[in-house]
Structure formats: C-alpha cells, structure tokens
UniProtKB/TrEMBL annotation, chain A:
Domain F-box: 21-67
SMART domains: FBOX
Domain of life (superkingdom): Eukaryota
Protein name in UniProt: F-box kelch-repeat At3g23880-like
Origin organism lineage: Eukaryota, Viridiplantae, Streptophyta, Embryophyta, Tracheophyta
Coiled-coil segments: none
InterPro entries: F-box-assoc_dom_typ3, F-box-assoc_interact_dom, F-box-like_dom_sf, F-box_dom, Gal_Oxase/kelch_b-propeller, SCF_F-box_component
Pfam families for this protein: F-box, FBA_3
PANTHER family xrefs: BNACNNG10540D PROTEIN, F-BOX PROTEIN CPR30-LIKE
UniProtKB/TrEMBL annotation, chain B:
Gene3D superfamilies: Potassium Channel Kv1.1, Chain A
Pathway this chain belongs to: Protein modification; protein ubiquitination
Family statement drawn from the similarity comment of this UniProt entry: Belongs to the SKP1 family.
Name of this protein: SKP1-like protein
Organism whose genome encodes this protein: Olea europaea subsp. europaea
C-alpha cells in the first residue's frame, strides 16, 4: 500500500478533477447486500425477481434477521408503523408510518386488509413482535400476520370449554433460544366459590400446536394482552380476590415457561391510575394523575428494581380529564415523545416542554394504537 | 482553524490516487479513513500512501467529505448545531451523479469510512427503491438468470409489490 515517491506532484484538494470515462463500477456482492439491507419491504419483495441469487439472498433467514435488526434499531423509527384498532362505527384496522407522522404535514392512514375482516366481527390486536402481529377475531380465532408482506396464518383452535363468565387474556412473543413465536392464552373463569380459576395454554409456531402449561400464578390477570419484553410476557394482575386499582406485574418466561413477578418502584405520592406497557425493549408503567400529568416509568435493567426510571412526565394541557395518555409509542433521539391521547396522536417534546399535533386523515376514532416494525419475517414456521 | 495551531507543524499525509494524483491532507482528515487510522496506530504510516482503488475524482470528493466532517466535529459549535450542519452538508454532498455515488460507496467501503459508507448505502437504497427490475439489473450489472416461467412464478407470489 505504500511507496516512496521520487518526486510526487502535490496537488492540494484537487482543483483539477479528472472524469472517469470507464464503465460503471460494478459493486461487489457484499456492498450490494448492504444496500439491500436498507431497503423497505415492498422494494425487497419486488427485487426478488432481479435474479436467482438476489431471490435466495432476500429469502435467506440470515438476511431477514439482519434486515429486521437494522430496522428495529433505527433510532429514528424509519421503518416503524402504527396500527390503529377501530371499533366504531365498524371494526377495522388502519395504519400509517411513524416517519410520516413526525415529518410530513399531513399523513393519511391506510385501511388495511386483515384475515377474516368483517365490519361486525371484533378484531383485537394481541401484540406485535418482529413485524408479526397477532390478532384475535371474535376473541378466539387467532392469526399470526405480517402486514408488510401481507401473509397470515390461522392458529389451530384451542379446545377449552367456553362457559359463561369466561374471559380470555392473550399474549404474543418470541422465544429467542428456540427461535419460536409463541402465543399464550389465559382462560379465566370465576368459580362458584367466588375465586378465579385459570387454565393456561401455550401455542408454538414451530410445532403448530397448543399445549397446557401450569395455571396462572399471581392473582387474577386484568383484561389486557400480555406485554412482551426480555423474552417474557407480562400481565397486570390483581393480587386479591376482587379487582382493586393496585396490581402486580406477573411475568411468564416463554422459554422456561415459569411465572415470575416484576417488582415495581415507589411511584410517589398522589392519587393515580396506572397501566402496563412496553417502551422499546423495556417494561414500562404509565401513572396517570388525572387532569394534571402522566409519568412514564421504564424498567431500564430487567430484574433490577432500582433501575426503574421516570423517563418523562407529560402535563395535560386544557384537558377536562376526559382522556388519558397512552404509554408512549416511541421516544426519539431528539426528545420527541409520540403518544396517543384519546383518539389523537400527540408529539410532546421533553426538551422544551412543547406539544404538536400531527395531522392524520382517515382515522377519527381509535380504541388502541401499537407500533410494529416492517419486516420480512414469515408467519409460517418453515419460511414462506 | 486558529492561528496558534498553525505555528506548530501539522502532520500531513500525501494520498495518491489510482490515476497518480497526489492529495495533501492533514492528519485530522486522514484519520477519518479507517485504513489510514489503523496504519497510524500501528505506527506504520508513512507520509506517502497510495490508494490503488480510488480515482482522483472520487478521492477529491472523499477528502472534501472527511475535511468537512473533521472541521465540524472539532469546531466549538454545540452538538445539535454540528449535527444539523452535517445533515445539510451530507444531503448536498449526496446530490451527485449516480455513477459517482456508486464509486463513492465503493471507495467508502475500501477506505473504511463508516459514516460515508452508511450515507452512500442509504442514498443508493432510496434511489433504487421505486425502480423497476430491469433498471436495477442494469444499474448493478446483474444478469437475469430466470426463465420466463420462473420469473413469472416469483413475481406472482407478491404481485402487489409491483403496483
């Protein structure tokens, strides 16, 4: 790489630019790979047709995994979207890109087709993980679905006798050790004696079957889907017999299938209601002090109670107390916090304590909003 | 650049392009090229370094990029302003002919300049994302080895992606 010049003609910062007249540089495969890893899903699905080697590259598990990792770790949420659950006047799902919400003057939400879509069939988004979304149609028909590639898979029915007074709480996550997607169904029934009995079943995508595991341990799960973080699903659960406003965080390890408890911090004084959620890769709790503010707590280091941190406190402005902030959908490097307030999307800037309200059309009234990353991950165990 | 530093002698490197043009660059610029930084750290950097895979046209651009980044980062401006400044510079810098972009990407890889490699890859990705299959084949010099029937079958699976 080095040589000693006899008399080098020094040219500072090249005033005299030479134009290459040769053929276009052909990029080596490893650089082409790097470019493909930065493409959106739709382009990748199209470019499968470029050649046989491009097809096998784009379909390979390694590529899918790396692309997912890149997209997930993009600090600006370039490849993340928000999915809105709409129940009124008809059941529906719509989505839009986070990037557009943040940077475009106007964003149009897209009405999407999902499995078994019907205006009168209820649709419930259980959760999202690696670009896959688990939805429940009419509460008990479950689907794994990748909206970015428009593919879905129906889960086999689970044979639990559904009597009166039953309710089901689900959860969806990924077991990294076995690289398997799992869905958990907690079937709860109030017995004659007044207590609550549960039966818990777990579905594995690899085996495409349900299996019963140990009954729910740690009280009565509240009626919300499990939150997936750190290889575990988490439910808020009422510790006593009746429902009180205080709840515990009960976890289920998807690999070892054992229950645990996540200790909560001392949230401080005052009357508040709280909800459990996930922010990025961390378990999060939002404490809502009606009409005044909402505090967002994040468990920065899993299993370490002292690592609970209040990451942001968002004031309510001119609010009659009708709506409550959601757990933030994302927090950006520039200090912007994207979250829902009732049926609006709000961007709060924690650096200068300012608000802005991104304009979004085709969504008036939504019940819930979740984020998901665009990915090539197939909802079928054996690839596509 | 302050006058006090100009008094002390700055370490300078001479970079020679594939076509024999020699560029004089300061150390703060040269170390942005990971290949050169490694040479310096390994104490085997001579003041004269030949870069066989980069033409003078591209090397001039690479040096312009590294110089701007080195100056912005060492300047006294706040991180946010420096960030904004780099963003504006990067955007303008990427406003070049497609072939230049491909060569810049390849040079960034060869010279191991991570930020420039990321920038060019991202720019190329957004440039090609809406292109047709035929355009992409041409751009990357890829031969279509599908039979008509095969290609049709692959295309059919995600037909919506072509709309």
């Amino acid at each position: 790489m080095e040589e000693i010049p006899s008399d080098p003609p020094i040219q500072q910062h090249s005033k005299k630019i030479r134009y290459s007249s040769g053929p276009i540089a052909t990029l080596p495969p490893e650089i082409i790979l790097e470019i493909l890893l930065r493409l959106p899903i739709k382009s990748l699905l199209k470019f499968r047709c470029v050649s046989k080697s491009w097809l096998s590259l784009i379909s390979s598990p390694q590529f899918i995994k790396t692309h997912l990792k890149n997209s997930t770790n993009d600090a600006n949420f370039t490849f993340h979207r928000i999915m809105f659950t709409i129940t009124y006047p008809r059941f529906n799902l719509k989505d839009c890109s986070i990037r557009s919400l943040l940077y475009e003057p106007l964003t149009e939400a897209v009405t999407i087709r999902y499995p078994r879509k019907h205006p009168r069939r209820s649709v419930w988004v259980v959760g999202s993980c690696n670009g896959l979304i688990c939805i429940a149609i009419n509460e008990k028909n479950l689907f794994l679905w990748n909206p970015s590639v428009k593919k879905s898979k129906k889960l086999p029915d689970v044979d639990v006798p559904m009597g009166r007074g039953f309710y089901i709480v689900h959860g969806f996550g990924f077991d990294e050790t076995t690289e398997d997607y799992k869905v958990v169904g907690i079937f709860c029934a109030f017995g004659k004696a007044g207590g609550c009995e549960t039966m818990v079943k777990i579905y594995s995508l690899k085996t495409n079957s349900w299996r019963r595991i140990e009954d729910f341990k740690g009280g009565v799960p509240l009626d919300d889907s499990g939150m997936f973080a750190q290889g575990k699903l988490h439910w808020s659960a009422s510790p006593g017999e009746g429902f009180s406003s205080a709840w515990d965080i009960v976890s289920l390890d998807l690999e070892r299938e054992i229950y645990g408890m996540v200790e909560q911090p001392n949230y401080g004084e005052g009357n508040f209601t709280s909800v459990l959620g996930v922010l990025g890769e961390c378990i999060s709790v939002l404490c809502n002090y009606q009409k005044t503010r909402a505090d967002v707590w994040v468990l920065k280091e899993y299993g370490v109670k002292e690592s609970w941190t209040k990451v942001v406190s968002i004031p309510y402005i001119d609010d009659p107390g009708k709506y409550m902030y959601s757990i933030p959908l994302c927090i950006l490097p520039n200090g912007e916090v994207l979250l829902a307030l009732g049926s609006s999307i709000v961007v709060y800037n924690l650096k200068d304590n300012s608000f802005r309200f991104p304009k979004i059309t085709n969504v008036n009234d939504f019940l819930g909003a979740i984020t998901y990353v665009e990915s090539l991950v197939s909802p079928d165990a054996d690839g596509e | 650049m302050s006058s006090s530093t100009e008094l002390t002698e700055k370490k300078v490197f001479l970079l020679k392009s594939l076509d024999g043009v020699i560029f004089e660059v300061e150390e703060s610029v040269a170390v942005q090229l990971e290949v050169i930084r490694e040479l310096i750290e390994g104490d085997c950097a001579r003041p004269f370094i030949s870069l066989y895979n980069v033409t003078s046209e591209i090397l001039a651009l690479v040096i312009e990029y590294c110089k701007h980044h080195a100056e912005t980062c060492s300047g006294g401006t706040s991180a946010t302003i420096a960030d904004e400044d780099l963003k504006t510079f990067d955007n303008e810098f990427m406003n070049v002919d497609e072939n230049i972009l491909l060569e810049l990407c390849s040079a960034a890889d060869y010279l191991d300049i991570k930020s420039l490699f990321e920038l060019t890859c991202r720019t190329l990705a957004s440039l090609i994302k809406d292109r047709t299959i035929i355009e992409v084949r041409k751009m990357f010099n890829v031969e279509n080895d599908f039979s008509v029937v095969e290609e049709k079958a692959v295309r059919k699976e995600f037909a919506w992606a072509f709309k």
